[in-house]
Amino acid sequence: MPFFIQKCLLFSILVTFWGSLSVAHAAPNQVAEAKAGFIVQYSQYVRWPNASRIKPFTICSVGSNDVSDALVKQLQKNKPMFNGHPIQYLQLFNQVADKNCHLIYFANQQKPRAGRTGRAILTVSDAPGFSQVGMIEISQQQNKLVTIINQALLQQNNLQASALLLQVAEIKH
Fold first, then answer.
1. Is the CB of residue 23 less than 8 Å from the CB of residue 67?
2. Keyword set for this entry (predicted)?
3. Mean pLDDT for the stretch of residues 128-140
4. Is the dihedral angle over the CA atoms 47, 48, 54, 57 positive or is it negative?
5. In which domain, by residue range, is 90 found?
6. What is the CATH number of the domain that holds 32?
């Protein structure tokens, strides 16, 4: 089976599993691990301009919480790849995007000052209402984790969600 099809199949299985994860009865660390898994998978299902030149792909975090802690652990344990290179992690201590960041997770209810970064940087958070100012919100709805995509902000920042990601997400225009 071609590698791309394997990735799509795996993502579909993961979305199905995580999408049905009951957050009402799940331990907080399980919810954090699932959200961290979503964040890592977004790197595979969003297209960056000149993606072939991205070496290495860097996920950054502004602030710290259970999700950012789980994200660090997943990156260290699973060593996911982007274009054949390991994904790296960088902790930011303010909202000024590091020039090496490709995806920024906003922890602790922190919201970016502006959704348009002027660069191809994917912004993600689980803060309620984040999709009004950021690109992807991981929301808890009816005891499930749901991806909400602000399609307009993605396009303004020259990013494109894959068809597979758009199928499983709620879209804000």
1. no
2. Signal
3. 93
4. negative
5. 3-172
6. 3.40.50
Amino acid in position 70: A
In this predicted structure, which of 2-16, 75-89, 129-143 has the lowest mean pLDDT?
Answer: 2-16
DSSP per-residue string spanning 78-136: H--EETTEE-EEEEESSSS--TT-SEEEE-TT---S-S--SSS-EEEE-STTGGGTSSE
Beta carbons of 92 and 1 less than 8 angstroms apart: no
What is the band of 99 on the pLDDT scale with cuts at 50, 70, 90? Answer: confident
CA 7 to centroid of chain Cα atoms:
16
Q: Provide the domain count of the chain.
A: 1
Nearest to 120 by CA among 131, 109, 105, 104: 104
Which secondary structure element, helix H or strand E, spans residue 136, and what is its range? strand 136-141
Q: Where are the alpha helices (DSSP H) in the chain?
A: 3-19, 28-45, 66-78, 151-156, 163-168
